Amino acid sequence: MLEDVTTSRVREDASFKAAAGPYLAQVRKALMRWAEVVSLGRLEDLLALYASDAILVPTMADEIGGHADERRAYFESFLANPKLRCRIDTLRKRISHKLGTVVVGGHYIFTFERDGAEQTLPARYLFTFEEIDGAWLITGHHSSRMPSSS
Fold it and tell me: Which InterPro entries match (predicted)?
């Protein structure tokens, strides 16, 4: 079951909650879309979720990607894992006071097949989403293995 929590300001300030609610819902949908396209292995759809200048600090590589070709190279390799699936387990959201940026952090679990056996990789994530030309795009994405799984 997904644990979904929003920062206290949104919970405690009714007028801000009313203004922020639709944006938070759109970002939640964008994050779930990210997990879906990872699970479907759809590279082009995945790359389209990132802003052109997005920064990627990936789970299973040491390089930091700040260019489209670097994100493409990482995700081509990552999506090549057989039977790759992503499940979002926890989700914490914070929205900027100007409502243009949302930061989402939490845990996800990747499963994939390696040497004929199912592997599980629990990881932490932090995404920054910005509304750009009417779409909520990923401008920053950091992911790291859970310390307990390293």
Answer: Ca/CaM-dep_prot_kinase-assoc, NTF2-like_dom_sf
